[in-house]
Amino acid sequence: MRILLINPNTSVAMTERMVASASRSLAPDVELVALTAPHGMPYIASRAESVIAGAATLEMIATHQGGVDAVVIGAFGDPGLIAARELFDLPVTAMAEAAMLTACMLAQRFSIVTFSPTLTAWYEDAVALSGLQGRCAGIRVPDVPFASINDVQSELESQLVELCLRSIETDKADAVILAGAPLTGFAAKVAARVPVPLIDPLDAAIGQATLLARLQTIPARAGRFARPPAKPGTGLTRALGAWIEHRPM
Amino acid sequence: MRILLINPNTSVAMTERMVASASRSLAPDVELVALTAPHGMPYIASRAESVIAGAATLEMIATHQGGVDAVVIGAFGDPGLIAARELFDLPVTAMAEAAMLTACMLAQRFSIVTFSPTLTAWYEDAVALSGLQGRCAGIRVPDVPFASINDVQSELESQLVELCLRSIETDKADAVILAGAPLTGFAAKVAARVPVPLIDPLDAAIGQATLLARLQTIPARAGRFARPPAKPGTGLTRALGAWIEHRPM
Amino acid sequence: MRILLINPNTSVAMTERMVASASRSLAPDVELVALTAPHGMPYIASRAESVIAGAATLEMIATHQGGVDAVVIGAFGDPGLIAARELFDLPVTAMAEAAMLTACMLAQRFSIVTFSPTLTAWYEDAVALSGLQGRCAGIRVPDVPFASINDVQSELESQLVELCLRSIETDKADAVILAGAPLTGFAAKVAARVPVPLIDPLDAAIGQATLLARLQTIPARAGRFARPPAKPGTGLTRALGAWIEHRPM
Amino acid sequence: MRILLINPNTSVAMTERMVASASRSLAPDVELVALTAPHGMPYIASRAESVIAGAATLEMIATHQGGVDAVVIGAFGDPGLIAARELFDLPVTAMAEAAMLTACMLAQRFSIVTFSPTLTAWYEDAVALSGLQGRCAGIRVPDVPFASINDVQSELESQLVELCLRSIETDKADAVILAGAPLTGFAAKVAARVPVPLIDPLDAAIGQATLLARLQTIPARAGRFARPPAKPGTGLTRALGAWIEHRPM
Amino acid sequence: MRILLINPNTSVAMTERMVASASRSLAPDVELVALTAPHGMPYIASRAESVIAGAATLEMIATHQGGVDAVVIGAFGDPGLIAARELFDLPVTAMAEAAMLTACMLAQRFSIVTFSPTLTAWYEDAVALSGLQGRCAGIRVPDVPFASINDVQSELESQLVELCLRSIETDKADAVILAGAPLTGFAAKVAARVPVPLIDPLDAAIGQATLLARLQTIPARAGRFARPPAKPGTGLTRALGAWIEHRPM
Amino acid sequence: MRILLINPNTSVAMTERMVASASRSLAPDVELVALTAPHGMPYIASRAESVIAGAATLEMIATHQGGVDAVVIGAFGDPGLIAARELFDLPVTAMAEAAMLTACMLAQRFSIVTFSPTLTAWYEDAVALSGLQGRCAGIRVPDVPFASINDVQSELESQLVELCLRSIETDKADAVILAGAPLTGFAAKVAARVPVPLIDPLDAAIGQATLLARLQTIPARAGRFARPPAKPGTGLTRALGAWIEHRPM
């Protein structure tokens, strides 16, 4: 089974770190193919940047969907997720949604811990999109800045563990999602120091994409994810323009 | 007062029709400046197309924001609305949100009537984003297709009036929003045939933008619409890239 | 355009202050006509008092509706708002509802700051009536009393600004409504000291009434705001009794 | 135990019918004292009329509260209920709220059947006030008019039974509330023809008032039902004005 | 009128305390018949234990339902409540549901104060089952342990009163439910020290059972509480097995 | 990886059918171990029966948890699910919850189609427990009875497909869950006749259990799924009694 992991950020280093971390919980028959965004921002962290990255995500899937069994959008905030489900025939998962749905089987209320206050609004939107507000105990962020996004796990380790503990004691969370692609792999590192399950969103997203591929359900031909009618566009990338204008119905 | 009307579709004819219709309910001191999207689709009608148009909307505002008092996004579905509020210092309104908020002062529950089933999912998302699901009586669409989007008002006139009546009788709506840029001006035409207020989303969006500009509130420097930190991007249009990288804080 | 501003309190001084403040953001073609309640309480501040003031509001509109384009109920808590929409043919707005709907275009979550804990329950009811609970970050009040309702703005200035700041930092509000007729005009005074938009409910209510009047929608003849059947009453004021018994259908 | 039954309508015949019907399920130690509104409308049937009747209800309780253990507001729609709880020290119940809360112990979802479409909006507001929307299966009304409100039970008997059956089959209700003071006593008459529990709102409201009186809880001195500060009023009835200005704290 | 009080715990001492406390607010014509669970745990305090006790509750009702007018399940958390309503023809109430519904007539928002953090999750589930989350201000528990469940009222008296006060001041509750069978009778003891109504769940549950019995509604023969089809079972107690297999329809 | 599949019904034939069907989408490294309930009902179909089966489920897990990586409760309605998560250290999934969470990645709104109206109330409770009511388009059941639960797939095949189509067209579902253990395997049979994804709950539950086991999260030692304190019980099965009284903390 081939799963396409889309990194909607332009940082190749982050893509490599995600692939390394993901190998830990892959099913034995899964092969991961990873892509880095060719344009955009090195790390998207707002709704505005997510709109721009969402368009890039659609372009990347349009270009690389051949021979793939499922797609994972590798950013918490899920840029382009709904649009991708509408446009393509493959199962598509993303880090925020998959982490929250997975958490619902380990917790009645989950919290989200991340590394920067800038991210909060974007992540709140992801919670709202899922319809799981009633099961979200809150989002917690450190009140100290970090120097480098590549080292955020080590720079903020004690603060992030402390936020996990406060989300349990104060917010009454039963599980904690460690959110944001730069925190990939962090859950496993600190699991022994937090008394509830910690969710790694990339593991969850790849696991759920694997599950969906195994179910072999048909693509929607009706409802909210039926494809919109074909139409011509101007100024789109070649593969995306062609798929929108000529895709098989 | 200058209000910038962004048409995120590439159809100049639609822009012209919107400007003509809007003049009917402008305040005496308002000047409307209209723009048509330089690339994208002639008529966006899905979440996938809205993601692409949202990115284009941000580019258009970045380029043309000088000397403007408020911005109106001229598509029901509100592509790029939240992103634009986050990124720019101007008040920004859009057709779906403005129509729904306005309807809340004329109705306890409003319905949305539009011209194509393809639009339903996109409009549902706009309702959910507003948090007004509890006041939305439903979305109704004709079960007959139309030949030309430019003539959809005349082609479907009787069906649309009939849907208004059914949304009142069956769905228990107290006001009806006639949704989608191609229906701009239709509310005034058929008002005498429907026994509740009909909302024209473009009138509402321009009226609300005018109101926001008059209030002269400051741009947010905290909260969900505080600007994200500046950062470099690759592959963005010149004005948007410059604004994201160098905008004043 | 003539807009009737109803002060449901018996304080003429407050009416005068509201008129003076409102002139700042009126559209150039709007004339404001203000009325003070002939009986009731000098300042209504509870649900019980609001029921009594609601009946007085209906009497005032019945008497003075001639030649008017829209009505504004000049109390946060909106006494008689739904009843007035049901009974009369004019657009009617009120301070709480208009402030909240306006805030929804400047914020994803708004808070309400007011000057007395007595008001909290009444304002909570107004939030619930609007269906916007999901967008309200909370209501904050000072924990110190004030000596005179006429001087409450100057007496509590620093406390109210502090509450605005706490509603942003603690409650995560993106805009703040300064609620209660005695705070009319306060938003403009302290805007520079609070890093998010501040909403003046009277400005919002008059602005929204102006907008509704411009839209020229028809009065409801069906749905929740269709007029109830005419019937005789005993013990009502002359104009209200006549309107209820003989109003044109 | 003395329970004061307030009929906020001016119809003495209706008061008498309510007293007669209520005697069926009174506890052995309860004495019912009934009052008819001295001014207002013969039968209130809208939110506007309910505002007027709410003020009258407060006047009636202020005048007659001496020696009473609990108060029942005898109209479905509950005019003045929240205001009365705020203002007086006695337990107060009302027909809509009591019927819905009682139904929650016999059903997971209840429906409301009443005799006139005019009442729907008012009753919907009562459902919303209770916070029980999630347990309300809907409100059903006949599509035929009635000639006399005094004979509405016999005129519409078959239609009302049919609506009960449809609310079970179509709306999936598990119990039905027969709403509106003119339907008092109807539930018992037709119980054998409907396969789920039928709730008589007056029985429920008197039963709940009895229960509250037995519990002997103290009046609130904090929270949403703490009494607002005393203040002078103009144009109020003598007893209500005195209570608002001089009531013991 | 005979009311069957089921104690789903195996502690006879607790049953006796409940009977003694309940006599305080019984209607004059009510006789209480109390039963203690023959197997299970001395005090159930979790969802797992509640599932086990729920099955025991059904067995006890099946065995002792003859000659009874209504049933009260004497544990806050309401083990087996929905199942009992589905299976038997008698009105059934339980402590959590009855306390919350009763509180809704004395408060707009109630809080729940109990004696052990272990109980929180179970009680949260009871709130959710009722659909009254919007009216629950929260659940508060002491942060100190107790030595004996029989003496918990005296051991924790000052802490529990303090929690009541904090739920009013911090959580904005208007009434407080003192939850858990071991707190039966505690509300009356400390009422003078808390400025809002205190609800005793056992009093509420017996009062509501009395009220339901007086209403003499028919058992459901349709809807969610219609009896499931008869079927054979293996390994059930004799009375329950016989009722499930042979009960009259 | 070993996954324990609990059939809480007493029908061995159903267990065998579930195991056969599940083998279709198992990951290559998963071994399924299946158990049939030793007492209870041949097919549980109500909340009352689910309470009884929930207690039996706990007994079965207590006895057979050794050497197991995750548990699947093989009944839609999820008897004992929350209790099992509270009591045991293994990941536990169940058919209703897993099917709904999985559907959320293929649909914005899912519907549930099952084979008997008796099941509706039980399944509604499962939807409510998940907090996903906002994403559930409804539950549909045939209006014709079936002769044998073992042949329900063939007896009702055309009716069930028709209900799937109606849930898409009328209820606006984007995916359909085919609910109830007797429908295991039916989704694959009829997928080509329904234009949206069909979810097989057993496949979803086993897939999610597999995913949870791969994540290797720690058992909760805090929050809603922390184990309740050990205590003695009377009348429990040996393994369950021992686990409740002596389990390691």
From TrEMBL, chains A, B, C, D, E, F:
Under the heading Gene3D superfamilies, the entry gives: 3.40.50.12500
Per the record, a Pfam family? Answer: Asp_Glu_race
What would be an example GO MF term here? amino-acid racemase activity
Query: What InterPro entries is this protein classified in?
Result: Asp/Glu/hydantoin_racemase, Hydantoin_racemase-like, Iso_Racemase_Enz_sf
Name the domain of life this protein comes from.
Bacteria
Family per similarity comment: Belongs to the HyuE racemase family.
Which protein is depicted?
Asp/Glu/hydantoin racemase
Q: Which organism is it from?
A: Methylopila capsulata
